[in-house]
Design a protein that fits this description.
The structure is a single chain. The chain is mainly α and 292 residues long. The protein has a single domain, classed as ABC transporter involved in vitamin B12 uptake, BtuC (Orthogonal Bundle), CATH 1.10.3470. A two-stranded antiparallel sheet has the order 1-2.
């Protein structure tokens, strides 16, 4: 039981980075970005290919982030400059990234078995792989949460948040909302690519299909985090996202332990998201019944 929890928490911390990226578009920008399914694989593909070719895993992870940012910029430019609807812009970029990711890897998957990765130095100190993943994942999440909390308190960060809340108002203040949307998408997909790079190094392989349904997993984690841990302020929101991602992985781990087929996980995730989204409506109706 403890091993299941250990593994779920370790993996949950890595997926938390992707969840934060989804939050930036879904909640902050009010933008439904399906680029995530492709940019997660882009991060994994770039990191895996560079590591396999002998590059430093830290350099490879950094370049993977840049690859994800480029994907986010592509979606942003399609939406803002070519006036393609946001949902369709993300779909177009996601489709294009399938071919791009295949080109990067040269094949459908890359194995990283017995190759040094970002967790190797921690393992050299005597940590198990899961402990190394947990420590590095926790540090990454903590740093990202603190940096984002600071950034969204700056003038630029506040403008991005205002673009999602009230684009007409912030536009009247002389802010270019198109630029804010592009920056938000760049930040979001950079985090998603970082998550993909770290997950690939943890699993010791990158696969072209590993991003399938990533947006649903991200949304599930966002909703679970908000429902279970609240959203009182922006910092609390960011912490809730990380906890939501961990809670989601724990739920999945226990469901698999109970005997659910892995092929049913997508259905289970979709049902989980639907129930979580319906909870506020159910609570509102329940409160109305209590007042009667």
């Amino acid at each position: 039981m403890l091993q299941i929890l250990h593994g779920a928490v370790s993996l949950g911390l890595l997926w938390a980075l992707m969840t934060i990226g989804v939050f930036l578009t879904y909640r902050v920008l009010e933008f439904s970005d399906l680029t995530v399914d492709g940019s997660l694989v882009t991060g994994a593909a770039i990191a895996a290919r560079m590591i396999m070719d002998g590059a430093s895993p830290y350099l490879a992870t950094g370049v993977a982030i840049l690859g994800g940012m480029a994907a986010g910029a592509a979606t942003g430019l399609l939406h803002t400059k070519l006036k393609i609807p946001g949902l369709l812009s993300g779909i177009l970029t996601m489709i294009a990234l399938y071919s791009v990711n295949i080109r990067i890897m040269g094949k459908a998957n890359i194995s990283l078995l017995k190759i040094e990765n970002v967790y190797t130095p921690l393992q050299a100190l005597g940590m198990s792989q899961k402990n190394a993943v947990m420590v590095l994942g926790f540090v990454c999440v903590l740093v990202i949460v603190c940096v984002l909390y600071w950034f969204f308190g700056t003038e630029l960060g506040s403008a991005i948040r205002a673009t999602g809340n009230n684009p007409g108002m912030i536009r009247a203040q002389g802010v270019n909302t198109d630029t804010m949307v592009i920056i938000g998408l760049i930040l979001s997909n950079g985090l998603v690519a970082l998550s993909g790079a770290l997950i690939a190094q943890y699993q010791q392989y990158a696969d072209i299909q590993m991003g399938t349904g990533a947006i649903v997993i991200g949304l599930a984690s966002v909703i679970i985090g908000e429902v279970l841990f609240g959203k009182r302020n922006f910092f609390n929101n960011l912490i809730s996202l990380a906890l939501g991602a961990i809670a989601y992985r724990i739920i999945i781990a226990f469901v698999l332990e109970l005997g659910m087929e892995t092929t049913d996980l997508k259905l289970f995730t979709a049902i989980t998201v639907a129930l979580a989204l319906a909870m506020p409506v159910a609570k509102e109706k329940l409160n109305k019944l209590k007042k009667r």
